[in-house]
Design brief:
Number of strands: 0
Radius of gyration: 21 Å
Helix content: over 70%
Strand content: under 5%
Oligomer: single chain
Structural class: mainly alpha
Largest sheet: none
Distance between the termini: 23 Å
Shape: globular
Length: 276
């Protein structure tokens, strides 16, 4: 969402963004989803490889939980409606914000959630505040000319290399990806660098939709680069099952593998979709 809003501020408007995002990411994401567990299993094999009792424990736990409750049915129905409207909201002129508020309102009115439940989600409020701040900051940097100045400087340097936009795209995407070592979390990285790098892509004559999507995809892919690169990575590392040196080693290894998968399979698929 934040990436799309920032892209719009630079004039890159994507019609039916959810559909475009899904179509562009489905094949490379599926390839990564299938290969990543296999590769990790080989390079970092688990100590316990056979869990004979797992199905029995799962069955007993499900019996203890009992049948699906009314609130759970309401939650599933609300999520289905919300996701459906997120997908088709563009054609119905319904904003994603309105859809999200509608879903939350349904859960509050029907008693699935209470307002105290909402207030207790401090992380969500923190992200909401930071997103608003970063979006406003990024917009002002563009309006005041900071982002255009930076993008023109970098574009001039890339132009001096006398290479096509394909090579410039590869250089910019690589820098955007690996510079994440200097950022804690993905939201701060997006707010600080996404507008500038998107502007550099546009100045380098890279197709706008392709540029916006690739930067957004990379923002997900570098989430496992270090133990501080995303909230999820911090949780996994905090569980204590992996050493810090292994986090960095496997992080950069899987980063290169995923970039290769997305670069090869993705490039072919995006060509078929007509993104470039």
């Amino acid at each position: 969402m934040l990436c799309l809003k920032l892209a719009e501020s630079l004039g890159v408007k994507i019609k039916s963004p959810w559909v475009v995002w899904f179509k562009a990411s489905c094949f490379p994401a599926l390839a990564s989803l299938m290969l990543t567990p296999f590769i990790i299993y080989k390079i970092c094999p688990p100590e316990t490889k056979h869990t004979v009792d797992a199905p029995i424990l799962a069955k007993n736990k499900l019996e203890q939980m009992g049948p699906v409750k009314q609130n759970e049915w309401i939650m599933m129905g609300t999520m289905l409606v919300t996701v459906t409207l997120w997908i088709s909201g563009g054609s119905l002129s319904i904003s994603t914000v309105a859809v999200a508020m509608m879903g939350l309102s349904i859960l509050l009115i029907l008693g699935v959630l209470s307002w105290d439940d909402c207030l207790s989600e401090k992380t969500a409020w923190d992200i909401l505040a930071w997103f608003a701040l970063l979006l406003g900051m990024a917009t002002q940097l563009t309006v005041l000319g900071v982002v255009p100045l930076l993008s023109k400087s970098v574009a001039s340097f890339l132009k001096s290399l006398s290479v096509g936009w394909h090579v410039q795209l590869l250089i910019l995407q690589s820098i955007y990806f690996f510079i994440h070592y200097f950022f804690a979390g993905q939201a701060t990285h997006i707010g600080a660098l996404y507008p500038a790098f998107l502007s550099m892509h546009l100045t380098a004559k890279v197709p706008g939709t392709l540029s916006a999507l690739l930067l957004a995809f990379n923002t997900d892919l570098f989430g496992a680069l270090t133990h501080y690169s995303s909230g999820q990575a911090a949780i996994y590392y905090g569980a204590g099952y992996i050493k810090l040196q292994d986090v960095f080693k496997f992080g950069v290894l899987m980063a290169i593998i995923n970039l290769t998968i997305w670069g090869l399979i993705g490039a072919l698929w995006w060509k078929i979709l007509g993104l470039y």
